[in-house]
Amino acid sequence: MLVLREGDRGPEVRKLQLLLNTQRLQGHRLDADGSFGPKTRIALREFQKKKKLEVDGVAGSATWHALGIEEKPNKPPPAQSTNWMEIAAAELGIREDARAGHHTQRILDYHQTTTLKATTDEVAWCSSFVNWVLKEANIQGTNSAAARSWLTWGRELQDPQQGAITITKKQGADVANGSTSGFHVAFYHSAGTGAKFSLLGGNQGDAVRIREYDAKKYEFVKYRWPT
Question: What pLDDT sits at residue 18?
Answer without folding.
Answer: 84
